[in-house]
């Protein structure tokens, strides 16, 4: 069996000057007189578990206090935890708390500074300190499911369920967001569609406001333009005074004398160029004349378009055409997104139905496994309780299937107990005494240890109110429990102390100042310690012989 808690080192803490303990697998017993400092050991371990430090815990107020625990976690698959916490994973993990004279404290995991909540999250997987004064874990729903699912062997199907459940909840959250977005979009849709229709009517991509303005300006001066163009054509084309005929006559005159001098030839050539340019001008003027034949309806249409353009500029507080185009594109996307949203919602709803079908199938399997495991679990716990002189104690487990998906299935769970035959079932804490609760927890832990790896458990005062045959039976159960996990028991009963494979004694030393010390006992020292637990100080020979007998020496 793997050793979990391997070492514990405490320095300058309460009454402890310095102790170094090495732990081994199996059942470890810690004994000592009342007030010797057993609770101080637990206090040190609580610091390692992330408990907030109180003032006044330094033995020497000028030095820091150090509590350090070394755990073997190789077989506990905690690599993901270390990754999530951004810590270095080590198979031999060291957790350290330091209390400073200033009153501040520091925490470390494998020499890396760590938050207290990280210590809590890690050590709850490594060590469990149980006292009858603590809240009974069995009353916690999460613990009840953990116990039942271990016996039901639901680990695999629960893992599958939780993966699908995570996706299912994520899809539901996404769907809710899209539905809210759709509802808001639908409120504004009609107005946005109206705005978009106005902008699309202008055909903005092909619209040039400068050209339209120029066309309208020309249409307003149509008569003047046509007069100018007609006069130009008349002056160029007229047979008597037309510019073109006169230029031809001049060119022809120079052509008659062109052979007499290069100068005359040059003038002829230039007049020929003028004639060609004039002909081009004539054609252009004729074309312009055709273009000035405007349709009055076209003028009205262009004016309407131009007015609409300017109205939209003012309405949307736009500076120019590009801003209107950008607004149109935005509206178009928003209107299109609405259709897209509707499609997305439809697809999401279909996906959620598909995931719900998977969850139902997995949840049904989980429920069936739990239902089959309940009588097995009850029988095992009640069998151990009989050995612990609680034969009349009966356990009842109600499994109620719900309509909604929960993080670990569709079940609600209720553990109830009846402490005496014929009595009604009720809440564990209300029905059972402190000693009975401790025995119930011992029975539960013993059953659970058969089905899954458990952290090191420390029982403090589990033997309170127990003696005789019950104590003997309890020691046997503790020994059985220690076959599957590391168990540490703080006890004052010899019947339980003799069951341990290892035995530590806590005592006070008065040399110099009061100092709590811990010693691992040899076989001979165990005999004397057990004898003292039986008879008190200075035990008789018969007590020593009885101790030897109990220890099997």
What tags apply to this protein structure?
17% strand, 6-stranded antiparallel sheet, Rossmann fold, 6-stranded mixed sheet, 553 residues
3D structure, described in words:
This protein has 553 residues and is an alpha/beta fold. Among the domains are: 1-126 and 455-521, P-loop containing nucleotide triphosphate hydrolases (Rossmann fold, 3-Layer(aba) Sandwich), CATH 3.40.50; 181-340, no CATH class. Helix content is 55%, strand content 17%. The chain is built from 17 helices and 14 strands. The chain has helices at 38-48, 79-84, 116-123, 141-152, 155-201, 209-220, 222-237, 243-257, 262-291, 296-315, 321-387, 428-431, 434-449, 468-481, 494-497, 523-535, 541-551, and strands at residues 5-13, 16-22, 27-32, 65-72, 92-99, 105-109, 112-113, 127-131, 394-406, 409-418, 456-460, 487-490, 502-509, 515-520. Strands 2-1-4-5-6-7 form a six-stranded antiparallel β-sheet, with helices on one face. It has a six-stranded mixed β-sheet with strand order 8-11-12-3-13-14. Strand 6 (105-109) and strand 7 form a beta hairpin. The model has no long low-confidence stretch (mean pLDDT 87).
């Amino acid at each position: 069996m793997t050793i979990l808690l391997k070492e514990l080192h405490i320095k300058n803490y309460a009454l402890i000057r310095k102790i170094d303990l090495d732990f081994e697998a199996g059942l470890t017993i810690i004994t000592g007189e009342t007030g010797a400092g057993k609770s101080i050991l637990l206090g040190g371990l609580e610091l390692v578990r992330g408990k907030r430090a109180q003032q006044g815990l330094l033995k020497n107020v000028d030095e820091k206090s150090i509590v350090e625990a070394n755990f073997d976690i190789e077989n506990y698959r905690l690599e993901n935890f270390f990754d999530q916490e951004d810590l270095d994973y080590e198979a031999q993990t060291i957790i350290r708390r330091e209390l400073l004279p200033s009153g501040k404290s520091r925490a470390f995991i494998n020499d890396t500074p760590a938050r207290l909540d990280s210590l809590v999250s890690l050590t709850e997987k490594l060590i469990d300190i149980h006292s009858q004064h603590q809240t009974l874990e069995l009353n916690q729903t999460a613990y009840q499911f953990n116990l039942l699912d271990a016996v039901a062997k639901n680990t695999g199907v629960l893992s599958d369920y939780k993966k699908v459940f995570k996706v299912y909840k994520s899809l539901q959250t996404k769907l809710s967001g899209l539905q809210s977005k759709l509802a808001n979009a639908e409120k504004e849709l009609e107005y946005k569609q109206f705005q978009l229709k106005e902008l699309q009517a202008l055909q903005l991509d092909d619209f040039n406001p400068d050209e339209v303005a120029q066309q309208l300006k020309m249409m307003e001066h149509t008569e003047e333009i046509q007069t100018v163009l007609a006069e130009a054509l008349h002056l160029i084309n007229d047979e008597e005074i037309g510019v073109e005929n006169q230029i031809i006559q001049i060119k022809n005159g120079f052509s008659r004398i062109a052979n007499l001098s290069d100068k005359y030839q040059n003038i002829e050539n230039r007049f020929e160029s003028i004639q060609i340019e004039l002909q081009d001008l004539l054609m252009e003027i004729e074309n312009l004349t055709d273009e000035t034949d405007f349709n009055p309806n076209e003028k009205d249409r262009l004016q309407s378009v131009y007015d609409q353009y300017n109205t939209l500029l003012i309405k949307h507080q736009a500076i120019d055409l590009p801003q209107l185009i950008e607004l149109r594109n935005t509206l178009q996307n928003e209107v299109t997104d609405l259709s897209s949203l509707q499609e997305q919602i439809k697809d999401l709803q279909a996906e959620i139905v598909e995931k719900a079908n998977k969850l139902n199938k997995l949840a049904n399997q989980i429920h069936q496994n739990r239902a089959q495991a309940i009588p097995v679990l009850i029988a095992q716990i009640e069998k151990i309780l009989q050995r612990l002189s609680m034969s009349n104690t009966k356990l009842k487990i109600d499994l109620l299937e719900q309509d909604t998906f929960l993080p670990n299935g569709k079940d609600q769970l209720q553990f109830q107990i009846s402490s005496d035959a014929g009595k009604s079932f009720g809440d564990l804490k209300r029905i059972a005494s402190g000693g009975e609760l401790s025995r119930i927890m011992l029975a539960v832990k013993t059953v659970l240890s058969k089905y899954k790896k458990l952290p090191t458990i420390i029982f403090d005062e589990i033997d309170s109110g127990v003696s005789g045959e019950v104590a003997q039976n309890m020691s046997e159960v503790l020994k059985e429990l220690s076959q599957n996990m590391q168990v540490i028991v703080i006890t004052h009963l010899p019947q339980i102390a003799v069951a341990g494979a290892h035995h530590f004694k806590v005592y006070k030393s008065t040399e110099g100042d009061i100092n709590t010390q811990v010693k691992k006992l040899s076989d001979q020292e165990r005999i004397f310690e057990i004898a003292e637990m039986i008879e008190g100080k200075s035990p008789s020979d018969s007590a020593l012989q009885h101790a030897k007998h109990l220890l099997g020496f």
